[in-house]
């Protein structure tokens, strides 16, 4: 038997295809020949890929001096049902930021990705194992310290994203941005959709808000799975809500980190078939959420697909990149 190394269609890593003859090799046909290669290259389990963690300090200094912007995602380690890993809220935004970086590069905007922040705040999943949390004041102070380090490096503009839907987590991100901007003098933005900001009670004209272009009922996730995922007031099928570890989030993981999705379990999970009243009860958090969703998911993960994940990743990345481009253009005029 001979083995030939060929690109796996879902990852930048390689796979092996066995040949049944000694004289030739058999190529594995791509599983998704219609998918853009740029999207395929966002799939990886390495959360440091394409971040400043892979760069030398010489490279980072040169990028800061040339006016590069920073992209920073704030996720958590949190339960995501019996089929997704606890790092889901870290893996998904990192995949999206890698695509955002590609799009910005196509517009001659140099962007560096900061390694993800993942010690966040869990209220909704707070009573589940592996849903870790820190005090908001600790998170804000840490953010402020890192922002000051970015200033010392010479960076001037930072764009922050949420990878987690918890209300307190996102309020803390916004407050950390405010604190960091006040102390460092940097231009720090929170890339978030209008629905999330309104749920948080943050004005849409907040000086730190960076809103993507949306339709009236658009579902831009703001690089966050739960704040405004499809099914929360904007899906074509609004019979039931899909909020956490459901169809949207599972689709995103299937395209970005397929090795970490328990496919056998996923395909057997029934839809929770919950509506707005159930969502309100679930958002009370801790024991309320665990009683409402004892398996940890809220939605329909069995309906997920790689194709839907690819489409969602591209759509959210495009809108995030456009929001950044719009803000950069406004800052140049001011």
Description of the molecule:
- β6, α6 and β7 form a beta-alpha-beta unit.
- α3 (88-106) crosses α7 (247-256).
- The relative contact order is 0.15.
- The chain has two domains: 1-31, no CATH class; 39-333, Rossmann fold, CATH 3.40.50.
- The chain has helices at residues 37-40, 57-65, 88-106, 136-153, 167-184, 194-200, 247-256, 263-266, 276-282, 287-292, 306-333; strands spanning 2-7, 14-19, 69-74, 111-113, 157-162, 187-191, 209-210.
- By secondary structure, it is an alpha/beta fold.
- The strands form two sheets. It has a five-stranded parallel β-sheet with strand order 4-3-5-6-7, with helices on both faces. Strands 1-2 form a two-stranded antiparallel ribbon.
- The longest helix has 28 residues, at 306-333.
Keywords:
334 residues; alpha/beta; Rossmann fold; 2 domains; five-stranded parallel sheet; two-stranded antiparallel sheet; 10% strand; disordered N terminus
What is the secondary structure topology, with strand pairs?
Elements: E1 2-7, E2 14-19, H1 37-40, H2 57-65, E3 69-74, H3 88-106, E4 111-113, H4 136-153, E5 157-162, H5 167-184, E6 187-191, H6 194-200, E7 209-210, H7 247-256, H8 263-266, H9 276-282, H10 287-292, H11 306-333
Parallel strand pairs: 3-4, 3-5, 5-6, 6-7
Antiparallel strand pairs: 1-2
């Amino acid at each position: 038997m001979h083995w030939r190394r060929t690109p796996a269609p879902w990852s930048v890593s390689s796979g092996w295809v066995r040949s049944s003859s000694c004289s030739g090799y058999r190529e594995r046909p791509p599983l998704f020949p219609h998918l853009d290669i740029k999207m395929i290259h966002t799939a990886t389990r390495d959360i440091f890929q394409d971040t400043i963690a892979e760069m030398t300090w010489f490279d980072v200094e040169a990028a800061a001096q040339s006016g590069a912007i920073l992209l920073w995602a704030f996720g958590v380690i949190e339960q995501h049902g019996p089929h997704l890993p606890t790092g889901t809220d870290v893996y998904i935004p990192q995949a999206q930021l890698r695509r955002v970086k590609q799009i910005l590069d196509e517009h001659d905007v140099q962007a560096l990705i900061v390694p993800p922040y993942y010690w966040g705040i869990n209220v909704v999943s707070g009573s589940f194992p592996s849903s870790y949390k820190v005090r908001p004041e600790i998170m804000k102070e840490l953010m402020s310290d890192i922002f000051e380090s970015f200033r010392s490096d010479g960076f001037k503009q930072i764009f922050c994203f949420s990878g987690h839907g918890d209300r307190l987590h996102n309020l803390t991100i916004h407050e950390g941005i405010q604190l960091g901007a006040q102390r460092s003098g940097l231009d720090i933005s929170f890339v978030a959709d209008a629905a999330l900001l309104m749920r948080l009670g943050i004005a849409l004209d907040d000086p730190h808000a960076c809103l993507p272009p949306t339709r009236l009922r658009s579902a831009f996730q703001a690089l966050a799975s739960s704040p405004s995922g499809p099914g929360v007031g904007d899906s074509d099928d609004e019979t039931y809500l899909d909020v956490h570890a459901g169809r949207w989030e599972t689709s995103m993981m299937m395209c970005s980190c397929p090795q970490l999705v328990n496919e056998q379990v996923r395909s057997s999970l029934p839809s929770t078939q919950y509506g707005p009243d159930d969502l309100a009860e679930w958002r009370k958090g801790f024991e309320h959420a665990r009683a409402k969703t004892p398996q940890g998911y809220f939605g329909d993960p069995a309906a997920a697909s790689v194709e839907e994940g690819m489409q969602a990743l591209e759509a959210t990345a495009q809108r995030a990149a456009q929001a950044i481009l719009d803000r950069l253009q406004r800052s140049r005029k001011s």
